[in-house]
Amino acid sequence: MSDPIKPNLTEQQSHWLTILKNCKASGQTMKAFVTSEGLDLQDLYTWKKMLVKKGVLPRTQKPRFQQVKIIDSVSVPECRINCFKPSYTKSPEPYHAAECDYH
Predict the structure, then answer these.
(1) pLDDT tens digits for 13-26?
(2) CB contact set of 96 (below 8 Å; sequence gap of 6+)
(3) 3-state DSSP call for residue 81?
(4) pLDDT grade, residue 28 (50/70/90)?
(5) Torsion of CA 7, 10, 15, 21, to 10 degrees
(6) Closest CA to 56 of 1, 10, 95, 91
(7) Burial profile 31-68: b = 16 or more Cβ within 10 angstroms, e = fewer
């Protein structure tokens, strides 16, 4: 079975892509794989990051930001917080009250 169409890769990128695929296929941890193959672990991580960024390898972590859907503001209650100090109190602290208007 052939790989899906890949972006243009340099010879070095193709080489590290093959190594990363072999690492995954081995079932070993990356550390165990590089030890058995005589490779540097940091090199493997660096190439993996670069190939993920290029879109050749899938992300292994979920994105930190998620897409949100903006809903119509007419159906959302609008809340305001007002600060006031009633005249009958001697407290220096203002009182807080929330008003919610449903549209």
Answers:
(1) 999 999 999 999 99
(2) 81, 82, 83
(3) strand
(4) very high
(5) -10
(6) 10
(7) eebbeeeebeeeebeebbeebeeeebbeeeeeeeeeee
